[in-house]
Amino acid sequence: MQHIYFVRHGTTEWMELKKIQGISDIPLSARGRKEAENTAKAFAEIELDAVYCSPLLRAYETAAIICQSKDLQPQIIHDLRELNFGWMEGRRDFNFPQKNWGILRYMALLGRIFIVWISGEHFSQVKKRAQNSWRIINERSPRGTILIVAHGILLSFLITGLLSPEQRKATKRIYLQPCSISEIVLNDDGSARIVRMNDISHLN
Q1: Cα 198 from chain centroid?
Q2: Nearest to residue 174, comparing CAs of 4, 8, 2?
Q3: What is the dihedral of CA 166, 203, 43, 134, to 10 degrees?
Q4: What domains are there in the chain, each with its CATH number?
Q5: Tens of pLDDT, residues 106-124
C-alpha cells in the first residue's frame, strides 16, 4: 500500500501578478514562503518515507521548507516540471490582444492549448511526463508514505492517472490551489481511495 500526498507549490510574484509561469523558474514570494511554512506545520506529525519534487525553484523551495523538520531531502524528478507554455510565459493569464481571443477561447473550450507548434508543449506530452514520473517514483518507493511537490497541471495529470474513471469524473474540475494538500491511498490491487483533494484548511 502507498499513502501519497500531493502538494502544489506556494505562491510566486508572477502568480500575484497573474502571469503565466510554465517552466519559467520563478521563486516563491514572501506569501508563498509563508504558505509553505504553514504546510510544513500540517506535515509535522506525518511520517514521510520520501519527498519528490519538480526541479523548478518554486516547487523545490516548497518541498525543502516542508523537509526542514524531517530527516529527508527532496528528490528531484525532472519530469515533474510544469507545462511549457512557450511564448505565453510571462504574459498575464489570457490577457492577449483581441485578435487572439477567438482561437484561444476555442482552444480553452476544448480543454487543450495547441501551442507546441509555436514553442511550447502539448498536454499529451505533459501527461506522458506525469506517467514517467510516477513510474520512477513507484520504482523507488513501492510502499510507504510519500510526498510529491509539483505544479497544478502536472499534478492534475499525475493524480487522475491513479484514479478510476468514476473518480476522474468527480475530480476533473478541481483547481489545485497554491500549497493545497491532496491525499490518496493506493491499495495493493491498484485501486485508489481519495482521502482529500485541494485541502487548504491549514493555510487559514
Answers
A1: 11
A2: 8
A3: 40
A4: 2-203 (3.40.50.1240)
A5: 455 444 445 544 667 888 8
Concatenate the DSSP letters of all residues of 34-92 into one string: HHHHHHHHHTTT---SEEEE-SSHHHHHHHHHHHTTTT--PEE-GGGSPP--GGGTTSB
Closest to 28 measured CA to CA, from 61, 70, 4, 2 = 61
> pLDDT tens digits for 28-74?
999 999 999 999 999 999 999 999 999 999 999 999 999 999 999 99
197's CB contacts (< 8 A; 6+ apart) are 159, 171, 174, 182, 183
Strands 50-53 and 192-199: unpaired
